[in-house]
Amino acid sequence: MHDCMTNPDLGAFLWRIQQGLPLESSPFSIIGSELGLSESSVIDKISGLFDKGLIRRVGGVFDSRRLGYSSTLCAARVDVNELAKVASLFATHSGITHSYERKLLGSTFAECPNLWFTLTAPAETFASSVEALRESLRPYPLLDLPAICRFKLQVLFRAADMGVENGSEVQPEISPAGTEKMDSTDMEIVRNMQGSVPLVARLYAEIAGRVGISEDDLLLKLRRWNISGALRRVAAILRHRRAGYSANGMCVWAVPENRIEEKGHRLAAVGEVTHCYARAAVREFPYNLFAMIHAGSEEELCEKREQTEREAGLVDGRMLLSVREFKKTSPVFFSAESVAARPS
Fold first, then answer.
1. Rounded to whole angstroms, how far apart are CA atoms 34 and 97?
2. Which residue from 25, 108, 181, 334 lies 20 to 30 Å from 65 (Cα-Cα)?
3. Strand, helix or coil at 12?
4. C-alpha to C-alpha distance for 121 and 124, rounded to whole angstroms
5. Which CATH topology does 86-138+145-169+241-328 take?
6. Is there a contact between 305 and 317 (Cβ–Cβ < 8 Å)?
7. Does pLDDT of 2 surpass 60?
8. Vertex 309, ends 303 and 314: CA angle to 5°?
9. pLDDT at 295 over 80
10. What is the β-pairing status of strands 115-122 and 143-145?
11. How confident is the model at residue 167, as a pLDDT?
């Protein structure tokens, strides 16, 4: 168990920096004032968490759809002896951010997909990106399971007490009209914030200098994006397995179409759920309501799944346990290749 699991002060600190850095000139000073720490202590603590491997990055968390990108969840049933080799095809693919081997618990569904991954790509080239993946996976058929409605997406882990707290949002897939119009300066801002931001007292001034604008102009832009939903927050992203959440499962249900919204709302309201989507069902995987839950062990995960099902009023669900992580990164927006591929 990591020391943050038994150190309330460190747990509280980790919780705070996951919530988001203030969009103000001296964000670490503000956080320090809240926690009774100096600005330099906040920066040093974050650097220490990086050194311990507890956080993956501190940077912008963007809504890909608002930036003109589309995404989908993909799956395939791959021969177990070739699984690692096939998954390695995704290692350098910037559009694939998460890739897992998953096994279905408590079922005889022999043909259940065992390779799962997410794809994010510019909307204009998204269809061709899916087809390219379909070709690269042959002879294994690709299952494309796009989100129809997002009921919940916001993951914050309380490391000190093993509780998961998260916000709930009900938001249908955004139409092109909801997309931010991004000029070259906007894209440069995103490129400078999608990785880890500099751990310096005036981090926004540092980024503004790189982009070639004033700090005030950058902060105004970030605040506007935050209000519109394009920028969810600038925050620490936790390596949840390092923090003690060693087990996670994707839970799925087949729900009648006329009840999907009702059940999606109820499922999103369950505290243990971190992600909740309605997705397109296909013949090979006939489930249309998806949720992710995390726990400290497989046994605890199974207990949480049963509790979640009861609270949401769902029956006959299945859970796919993540048994191997092949890749986990954040999306890369506005790379030179993707910008060049956009219609003028």
1. 34
2. 25
3. helix
4. 8
5. Alpha-Beta Plaits (3.30.70)
6. yes
7. no
8. 160
9. yes
10. unpaired
11. 39
Q: How far apart are CA 279 and CA 150, in angstroms?
A: 9
> How much is the pLDDT for 8?
54
The yes-or-no answer on residue 93 being catalytic is: no
Burial class (CB in 10 A: 0-12, 13-18, 19+), 27: buried
- Assigned token pair, 9: 């002060």
Pairing type for strands 115-122 and 55-62 reads unpaired
d(C-alpha 277, C-alpha 252), whole Å:
10
Residue 49 and residue 268: Cα distance in Å, rounded? Answer: 30
CA 336 to chain centre: 23
Give the contacts of 73 (CB within 8 A, at least 6 positions apart).
116, 117, 118, 145, 146, 147, 279, 290
Q: How many Cβ atoms from other residues are within 10 Å of residue 266's Cβ?
A: 16
Q: Which residue has the tokens 């890369």?
A: 332
DSSP E strands: which ranges in 271-342? 273-279, 289-295, 318-328
Q: Is 269 exposed, middle or buried (0-12, 13-18, 19+ CB in 10 A)?
A: middle
**pLDDT more than 70, % of the chain:** 85
Q: Report which secondary-structure segment, H or E, holds 69.
A: strand 69-76
Distances (CA, A) of 124 to 29, 150, 216: 41, 21, 32
Residue pLDDT, tens place only, 145-190:
999 999 987 655 554 343 434 433 434 443 444 688 899 999 999 9
CB atoms within 10 A of CB 308: 21
Number of residues assigned to the chain: 344
C-alpha span between 146 and 281 (Å, rounded): 9
Return the structure tokens found at 82: 């070739």
pLDDT, mean of residues 48-65? 92
Least confident range of 34-48, 56-70, 164-178: 164-178
Catalytic residue among 98, 240, 275, 294: 98
